């Protein structure tokens, strides 16, 4: 268990968030990896709100799809983030309003970290 007051990964993620705009951040694989580590760190501390805020939600499963049969929300609109377990919904992309929901570039958290995330269970990082 780490301390909330000294979490270099989370601090770095927040610093990056403050310093760069969203498009630049998303172009950066390092950003993604840093955010993911910080999210997992928060999740291990039981801080679901923070984990959901930090997670890049890059590994998503559509809940209407057959791959989500085991999910408690199977058949509903939206996605499960397999990294943090959050229930997500697609946001309309202002640059591509007709982009299909399953390929959404932007999502928002409806319920933070409500399911056990596969990524964390696998014990990565
Ligand atoms: Zn996530």
Task: Give me the secondary-structure topology.
Layout: H1 8-19, H2 22-26, H3 29-44, H4 48-54, E1 60-62, E2 79-81, E3 87-90, E4 107-111, H5 118-121
Antiparallel strand pairs: 1-2, 2-3, 3-4
Helix pairs in contact: 1-3, 3-4
Bound molecules: zinc ion.
Zinc ion binds next to loops.
What does it look like?
- A hairpin with a 5-residue loop joins strand 2 and strand 3.
- This protein has a four-stranded antiparallel beta sheet, with no helix packed on it.
- The chain is α+β, with helices and mostly antiparallel strands and 125 residues long.
- The protein contains five helices and four strands; from the N terminus they run ααααββββα.
- The model has no long low-confidence stretch (mean pLDDT 83).
- The two termini are 14 Å apart.
- It has one domain.
- The chain is 35% helix and 12% strand.
- Zinc ion (ZN) binds next to loops.
């Amino acid at each position: 268990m780490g301390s909330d007051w000294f979490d270099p990964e989370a601090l770095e993620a927040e610093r990056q968030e403050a310093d760069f705009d969203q498009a630049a951040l998303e172009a950066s694989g390092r950003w993604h990896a840093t955010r993911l580590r910080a999210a997992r760190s928060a999740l291990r501390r039981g801080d679901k709100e923070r984990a959901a805020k930090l997670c890049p939600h890059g590994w998503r499963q559509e809940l209407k799809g057959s791959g989500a049969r085991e999910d408690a929300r199977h058949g509903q609109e939206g996605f499960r983030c397999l990294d943090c377990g959050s229930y997500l919904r697609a946001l309309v992309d202002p640059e591509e309003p007709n982009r299909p929901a399953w390929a959404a570039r932007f999502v928002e958290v409806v319920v933070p970290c409500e399911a056990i995330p596969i990524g964390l269970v696998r014990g990565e990082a």
